[in-house]
Write a structure and sequence with these properties.
The chain is of the alpha+beta class and 152 residues long. 24% of the residues lie in helices and 32% in strands. Strands 1, 4, 5 and 6 form a 4-stranded antiparallel sheet that branches. InterPro entries: Cupin_8, JmjC_dom. One of its GO terms (molecular function) is tRNA binding.
Amino acid sequence: MDNFLIQVTGRKRVVLYSPRDAPYLYLSGTKSEVLDVDNPDMEKYPLFVKAKRYQCVLEAGDVLFIPALWFHNVISEEFGVALNVFWKHLPAESYDKTDTYGNKDPMAASRAIQILDRALKTLEELPEEYRDFYARRMVLRIQEKAYRNDYG
């Protein structure tokens, strides 16, 4: 969900990454495996250097808009109090009713990922060369049917 991060007292450093950089963030579910964005393990995460980093420092009274799907890392530089205000902009039925904080994928995306996982499991029945060929065809089909043309 979209989010306003409101810094009431204290100071925080916020690092943001665009959803376009997801291929470089080493995602595990909806979170990045790269926990230390200031000193990432480049042997373990060599593509992370390609992710474009946006950074700001929030001080008392500052408000930062964090769009839905943007990855963020927050570092408290001193003790403080902050408030998050989230809001939903997709139709209500798009969200899991048990997800109070909006951390889960929208329902349609969650179902699509489950279907993809089943398709990949099915490909395991094929010899490696065939599995590779059909997996690449699947990727091309996803790119053709689902990717935005203006992502560059």
